[in-house]
């Protein structure tokens, strides 16, 4: 479910008239996504995505998010550009909420990525990192390792144990990871949430990277670690898929080779990435009633991934000949 606000045909036609995109033919609410309301808009000139920013997004960050899409798409990254209104603005206010019209990109999100698809995603991520280095805006990562540790602490051992008896142990792990976080790795703007559902693919080609609403300034290797954790396992995090994981790194390095410091840090970065999603999922789980329309994501899917990385050490990130 991801249409939180009702917009009638007249509201939509009035809104679309502010853009030079033709006249409205149809508008359908999009079920996927949780944070914002999204519609697939069709005009007599093409298809677009309309997003209404509902929650979790600080409107002061919108120029960063929308400017980043334009910057990356101008650099030929597979990222949707924003459609500016007739006054040149990338966002408008409708009923007190910000909305943006975004280019529609074709493709589907894969559920069981192949090594070839993972290679393409790795390469596209590296392309985004390189292209973002001259993006003029910055955004601090609100979900850094110490925030994740404090989130788990705030949830509390008892509440975490009510989700799974293993979860309280992640508080101490998150503290240790935050205390040992590698400093001074090369930085750029990172996506920070490049899960398979945020990538559109046509066969083995990446046709769209979407949902940049966690993007921030950060270590590029951490972004690769997030993507590795998101792509290289079955959804429960019980089985590591080594060929997919290796292909993702290979694809990344075909565009931007890792430095030796980055490679040495990858295991810890991946463990930190797992605890980032363990923490946010645990917090959401406790904040969301079990009968809510939104499906709760299981924090244990990422606690299991953490276990894999902790046991595997550097092996998943070793340099290939
Ligand atoms: N530019 C685009 N081109 C084509 N489809 C898109 C585009 N942007 C979004 N979509 C579609 O809309 C869906 C929801 O988009 P998105 O994931 O950005 O929503 P969200 O509510 O911000 O997400 P989340 O809750 O996962 O953070 C996507 O799964 C995809 O199907
Ligand atoms: N991609 C995240 C949600 C956004 O933080 C998850 O699956 O937990």
Q: Would you write up a description of this structure?
A:
The mean pLDDT is 95. 42% of the residues lie in helices and 15% in strands. Helix 3 (115-132) runs parallel beside helix 8 (242-255). Strands 1, 2, 3, 4, 5 and 6 form a six-stranded antiparallel beta sheet that branches. The chain has a two-stranded antiparallel sheet with strand order 7-10. The radius of gyration is 20 Å and the shape is globular. It has two domains: 9-103, Phosphorylase Kinase, domain 1 (2-Layer Sandwich), CATH 3.30.200; 115-317, Aminoglycoside phosphotransferase (APH), C-terminal lobe (Aminoglycoside 3'-phosphotransferase, Chain: A, domain 2), CATH 3.90.1200. The termini are far apart. By secondary structure, the chain is α+β, with helices and mostly antiparallel strands. The longest helix is centred in the C-terminal third of the chain and has 28 residues, at 260-287. A hairpin with a 2-residue loop joins strand 8 and strand 9 (205-209). L-homoserine (HSE) binds next to helix 9.
Bound chemical compounds:
adenosine-5'-triphosphate, L-homoserine
What distance separates the N and C termini?
Answer: 46 Å
CATH architecture of the largest domain: Alpha-Beta Complex
Main beta sheet strand tally, sense and closure = 6 strands, antiparallel
Quick summary:
42% of the residues lie in helices and 15% in strands. It has helices at residues 9-16, 62-74, 115-132, 145-155, 157-163, 169-179, 220-231, 242-255, 260-287, 300-312, and strands at 24-29, 37-43, 46-52, 82-83, 92-94, 97-103, 187-190, 199-202, 205-209, 216-219.
């Amino acid at each position: 479910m991801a249409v939180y606000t009702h917009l009638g045909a007249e509201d939509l036609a009035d809104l679309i008239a502010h853009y030079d995109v033709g006249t409205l033919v149809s508008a359908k609410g999009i079920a996927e996504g949780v944070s914002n309301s999204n519609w697939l808009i069709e005009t007599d000139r093409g298809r677009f995505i309309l997003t209404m920013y509902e929650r979790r997004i600080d409107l002061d960050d919108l120029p960063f998010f929308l400017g980043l899409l334009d910057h990356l798409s101008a650099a030929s990254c597979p990222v949707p550009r924003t459609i500016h209104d007739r006054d040149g603005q990338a966002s408008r206010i409708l009923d007190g909420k910000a909305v943006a019209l975004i280019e529609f990109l074709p493709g589907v999100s894969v559920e069981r990525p192949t090594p070839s698809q993972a290679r393409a995603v790795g390469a596209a991520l590296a392309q985004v990192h390189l292209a973002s280095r001259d993006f003029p805006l910055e955004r601090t990562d609100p979900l850094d390792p110490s925030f994740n540790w404090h989130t788990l602490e705030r949830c509390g051992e008892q509440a975490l144990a009510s989700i799974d008896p293993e979860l309280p142990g992640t508080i101490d792990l998150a503290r240790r990871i935050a205390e040992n976080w590698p400093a001074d790795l090369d930085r750029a703007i990172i996506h920070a949430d490049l899960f398979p559902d945020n990538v559109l693919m046509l066969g083995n080609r990446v046709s769209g990277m979407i949902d940049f609403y966690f993007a921030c300034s950060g270590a590029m290797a951490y972004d690769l670690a997030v993507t590795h954790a998101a792509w290289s396992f079955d959804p429960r995090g019980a089985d590591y898929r080594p060929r997919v994981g290796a292909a993702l790194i290979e694809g990344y390095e075909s565009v931007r080779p890792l430095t030796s410091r980055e490679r040495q840090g990858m295991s810890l970065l991946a463990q930190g990435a797992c605890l980032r999603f363990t923490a946010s999922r645990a917090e959401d789980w406790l904040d969301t009633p079990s009968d809510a329309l939104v499906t709760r994501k299981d924090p244990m899917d990422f606690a299991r991934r953490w276990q894999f990385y902790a046991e595997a050490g550097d092996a998943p990130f070793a340099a290939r000949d």
